[in-house]
Specification:
It is built from six helices and no strands. By secondary structure, it is an all-alpha fold. The protein has one domain. Helix 1 packs antiparallel against helix 3, helix 4 runs antiparallel to helix 6 and helix 5 runs antiparallel to helix 6. The N and C termini lie close together (about 5 Å). The relative contact order is 0.16. The model has no long low-confidence stretch (mean pLDDT about 90).
């Protein structure tokens, strides 16, 4: 994978990962809301005026644009596995930002993902 292709893929992956983190940050305001039909308007109001959630959705939309541009230039069988890098980013960022558990088992999984992505990227040759 060439530099510009890799940049498109990684930008899409990072925007997607950032979107997930922003959605998590905004989701806290919904943790105590009961999920009932009678609360639908209250939930909608909390979503519409929740800055992290709106920013997260914006990052998702932008990530789709970069992803489409990447798919126009990179084989999907190479690009799609790169999305798993988002898990690596989110696992580390969630540990740092949200104090989520990052156990040895999760770190081993992150290592396996990194090896897998490296292997797939190497298999792409010059495409």
């Amino acid at each position: 994978m060439k530099g510009p292709q890799l940049a498109l893929v990684l930008t899409g992956v990072l925007l997607n990962a950032i979107a997930q983190l922003l959605l998590k940050a905004g989701a806290g305001s919904l943790a105590q809301v009961e999920l009932r039909v009678s609360n639908a308007m209250a939930i909608a109001g909390k979503l519409v005026f929740n800055v992290p959630i709106i920013a997260g959705l914006g990052c998702y939309a932008l990530s789709v644009v970069f992803w489409i541009l990447a798919l126009a230039r990179v084989e999907v069988s190479v690009a799609y596995p790169m999305l798993s890098l988002g898990y690596v980013v989110n696992a580390l960022a969630a540990w740092w930002l949200f104090d989520e558990n990052l156990s040895g088992t999760r770190l081993a999984g992150v290592g396996i993902i990194l090896v897998g992505v490296w292997l797939v990227a190497r298999s792409s040759g010059g495409t």
